[in-house]
Amino acid sequence: MNASLKVHHVIQGEYHVSDDPGIVLTTILGSCVATCLCDPVARVGGINHFLLPSGEGKNGMEFRYGLLAMELLVNGLLKMGANRTRLEAKLFGGAMMNDNLAKIGDSNAHFAINFLKDENIKCLSLF
User: Fold this and answer.
1) Active site residue 38
2) CB 3.0-4.6 Å disulfide test: which of 39, 88, 96, 111 passes with 53?
3) pTM for the whole structure
């Protein structure tokens, strides 16, 4: 990696937006999903990392849910000059981590795909 690049690691329940071409946004996923969005004309982009598709989000835990994570990411990019009609997405994650657990990864993936579809955001790649 280029020594002049800055790395920003996004953990569970976080999101980050930037217009800095010298920043690399990273995360580590399992059943969680990360959505990468960018406006190639405005040259702004970002990533979120959510744990579950939906929930009540009590005690400051609302950031772990898909709907808020997606809204924060989109709105953060719009505040930086992105145009909603130019947004492009790539989705990552949604793995089946354990056969004995609920299909959390599947639920996260379906939520993210449906969110992008409902918001008319073009998805360039899936998982």
Assistant:
1) no
2) 111
3) 0.90
